[in-house]
Amino acid sequence: PLGATLRDGSIEDVRRAATTFSGAWPYLRVLAKMTGIGDPLDYRLVESYWLGGGLGAGLDPDEFVEQLLAIIGPKASHYWGHLTADLASEAAANHCFHVFGVYPWSRLLGRRGGSLDEHPLSVLDNCRITWATVLSRDGDDVEVSCRRLVWDGHALNLSQPSARRLEVWVDGYSALPDAAAGDEVAIHWGRLCGRLQPEQVRVLSDSTTRQLHATNQRLARV
């Protein structure tokens, strides 16, 4: 399991595990190639992919999409017919674009309305990187304040901040075992991923806002 690899594995084990991560690894490969950085796991590239901004922010979207699709296109099934050069209009070399632009879930919203929107909305909200503030800690649980993804039938937006409870340890692993009140943290699929600095929160917020705008423009045309 990934948790065991992160907890007990060597650097080489972690590197091998990273190459099997079908979501992030193609992006890191393209980022490395386009920036001339030899190591796809260079911290600058990894941070740029997960949070936005940084080295990936200035890349040409047409060239980026072309190189990305050359890797992921042959592996896509017929359900991924949207993976074309048209994606360049909403492309960014980061995880937020992957969630909202490459994954098909945003395209399932509003198809038949009602409760059928709940599953794709939940996937989108859990898969994106959420920034949050730790309000309190009780044993191995923390209560955080964060903004959730909402869908009004026409557009995606972020809610006002609300409280959410999370476990510090999952499957025997914690990326932030010393999480404490006042920490700014990143969340992915209900897990604490690490502590964020104020500038990282700003970058993540900006990249999320940009991607939601691009996605909403596409949804408005459907």
List keywords for this structure.
222 residues, 5-stranded antiparallel beta sheet, alpha+beta, globular, 8 helices
Write the layout of secondary structure elements.
Layout: H1 2-8, H2 11-19, H3 25-35, H4 43-51, H5 61-72, H6 95-102, H7 118-127, E1 130-138, E2 141-146, E3 149-151, E4 156-158, E5 162-167, E6 184-188, E7 191-195, H8 198-221
Antiparallel strand pairs: 1-2, 1-6, 2-5, 3-4, 6-7
Structure notes:
Helix 6 packs parallel to helix 8. Strand 1 and strand 2 form a beta hairpin. The protein is of the alpha+beta class. The protein has a 5-stranded antiparallel sheet with strand order 5-2-1-6-7. A two-stranded antiparallel sheet has the order 3-4. The protein has 8 helices and 7 strands. Helix content is 41%, strand content 17%.
Work out the radius of gyration. Answer: 18 Å
The percent range for strand residues is 15-25%
- SSE class: alpha+beta
**Low-confidence residue ranges:** none
> What's the pLDDT, averaged over the residues?
92
Number of helices: 8
Number of strand segments: 7
Main sheet: strand order: 5-2-1-6-7
The sequence of SSEs as H and E is HHHHHHHEEEEEEEH
CA distance, first residue to last residue: 40 Å
Shape verdict: globular
Report the biggest beta sheet as strand number plus sense, adding barrel if it closes.
Answer: 5 strands, antiparallel
Helix content: 40-55%
In a nutshell, what does this entry contain?
With 222 residues, this protein is an alpha+beta fold. It has helices spanning 2-8, 11-19, 25-35, 43-51, 61-72, 95-102, 118-127, 198-221; strands at residues 130-138, 141-146, 149-151, 156-158, 162-167, 184-188, 191-195.
